[in-house]
Structures are given as C-alpha cells and as structure tokens.
Amino acid sequence: MSDSLINTHRDGACLTVVVNRPAKANSLTSGMLNALRDIFCAAAEDEELRALILTGAGDRVFCAGADLNTLYDETGGPDPWTEMAEALHAVPVLTLAAINGPCMGGGLTLALGCDVRICVPEARFAYPVLKNNVLPGQYDMDRLQALVGPGRAATILLGGETVSASDAVAWGLADRMVNRGALEDTCLALCETAMAADGAHLKTLKSMLGRVV
Questions:
Q1: Could you give the strand order of the β-sheet that contains 94-99, starting from the edge strand earlier in sequence?
Q2: Which of 5-14, 66-75, 199-208 has the lowest mean pLDDT?
C-alpha cells in the first residue's frame, strides 16, 4: 500500500512501514501522523502479523521529527503525536526501527517506540525539545531514561546534545550499528524467529517485556 508520504510493504508476516518524504528530511505532518496511527492500529489487529519494521525513505535521514511549519497548527482535539505513539506502543508483535540516517526530535519518538533499534554509522540522535519549546511525551522521557540513564537523558533533553551512532550503541540508545548495505538484511534476519513463531506466544512474550519501560 502507498499513500505517497507513508508507504507500506508486506512480505509474509512482516510489515515494513516507510516514512516517505525524503525531500523534507522525512519530517512528519499531522496527516502523516494520522496515517501512521491508522497503520499501527491495523497492525495491532492483524492476526497474521509477527513483525513490523519502521524506516525512512532515501539514504540521507531516518526522520527529522515534526515539520516545524505545521508543529503549531493544531488547535484543540486529540494530539496526533500522542495518538500515533500510543498506537505504535500497542503493536503486540516485534517492532524494529531501521535507522538509516539522522534520527531527530519526533524521529526519536518513532525509534523509542520500537522494541529494537538498528542504525547505520551515519546516524545521529537528538531531541531538541528545549530549543523548540515543546514537551516530549512522558513515555519518551521514561523510555529514554531507562535506556541510557538519567544523566545521559539530561544531556540529550536539557543539554541539547547530539549523540553519534557509536555513542548511541555504547549508551544503549541503539542496539546495533551496521553498514548501510546490511541494514535491511540485518533487520529481516532479526525478524525471522518472530515470523515463524506462534502468534499468541509472541504476544505474551512482548507483553512481559512491556512491563518494564
């Protein structure tokens, strides 16, 4: 399925979701957030699905976060970022972020919402919420601290530090770094066991992992 800015590709029990706005650094508008929410909600109800891979189009950036031109457009109503993030967290099967470039701001929301994060050496990570005068979701705060510790979380959130791919792996923010040419195959290989598993067993294991942020 393709809706231009968010594309999906299904290969058996694995769904790949691609943020497809490379000319704008794969930045996310409210409409794109709503499309992602709907895809994740559908994935949660898909009895045949065993794994979901989330990545960005092109070879320049994973996701630059919110399109700042539309960041303050919302007036009232549900927050599309919260709805999208909650839908991603609720996907009951293995989720992987294939981080093929810089992962900034709301891009980190996507990455933190996945079970596993695989990055390329060119990736870097930042969450400039203080600079942009916005607040991250509480899940992002809790998840970031659980992965890297409170001091390193503070350097990212309060100090505005940009973290290299190698430091992200050392800190636990990313789980593995691979060359760009190996990114897709590495993610697919990590999905193989889940794709062959009994769905109920997989979902039970995921729910047990989910008890710890």
A1: 6-11, 14-19, 51-56, 94-99, 116-119, 176-177
A2: 66-75
